[in-house]
Structure formats: C-alpha cells, structure tokens
Amino acid sequence: MELTFAIIKPDAVKSRDTGRILQRIEDEGFQIRAMRMRHISQSEAEGFYAVHHERPFFASLTAFMSSGPCVVLALEAPDAIRKWRTLMGATDPAKADAGTLRKEFGASIENNATHGSDAPDTAAFELGYFFPGIELAR
User: What is the spatial distance between Cα 1 and Cα 52, in angstroms, rounded to a whole number?
Assistant: First the structure.
C-alpha cells in the first residue's frame, strides 16, 4: 500500500463538487486515511508551493489556493500516487481524458479542481505539511 496527498481545490469546493469527488475517490478503491477542510492562508500556500516560487504563475496560484476553503486528504491504495494522478487527469482540463476529475470538474489550468503529489518524496513532504504529527499508516 502507498500513501499520497490530494487537495480538492477552492474552485471545486465553491462549486459544491466536494461530495462527488470524494465519492469518485472511494469508488476507485482509495482509503481516505485523513481529511480536513481548510482555508489555507497566503503564507501557507506560498510555503506549500515554494518549489514554484520563481515560476510566473506562483502569485496567481498562491492567491487562488488561499481564496477559499479546500479539502486536504491522505489517500491510500496500491500504487496510490500513479492511480490518483490518473484519476485526476491532465493539468489542463481541456486536455484531460474523459472520465477524469479535471475533465469533469475543472475549468482551467489553474482552476482544475484537484491537486496530487507527483512522486514519493513529494507525497511525504505534502502529507507532513498538512498532517504534521499524525500517524497515517496502519
């Protein structure tokens, strides 16, 4: 079993898609090991996305991520990182495959409904960032 980190972003929470996204997560066989609804502060968003600090989209991304509540999750499944990224779909919803979360719930590259870790080291950092001190594994 593997753990990964996921976010249901502010756009999806605002449009009331949280329940449908959570249902899809469970239907795909993920175990939700931890979940919190959070309104991430600007400084938390900047720390979380620090790896993108020099990128031109950093300011708009962190402003968006701190614009309203989101849901942070620890998901467990065999090959969870790959499986979650497949379920999310391409970053740009216009290029995402049919049946993916971003195709169904995303509106743009930035307002794309979900986030997910891209590698084991990223997942470890992201899980620790939002679930510090919480035992996630069984």
Answer: 29
- Location of structure tokens 């999310």: 88
pLDDT in tens, 11-22: 999 999 999 999
CA quadruple 36, 41, 46, 49: dihedral, nearest 10: 20
Q: Which CATH architecture has domain 2-38+70-130?
A: 2-Layer Sandwich (3.30)
Global pTM reads 0.91
**Is 53 labeled as catalytic in the residue annotation?**
no
- Domain range annotation of the chain: 2-38+70-130
DSSP letter at 97 equals P
Tens-digit pLDDT profile for residues 85-130: 999 999 999 999 999 999 999 999 889 999 999 999 999 999 999 9
The catalytically annotated residue of 39, 52, 53, 115 is 115
CA distance 99 to 89: 8
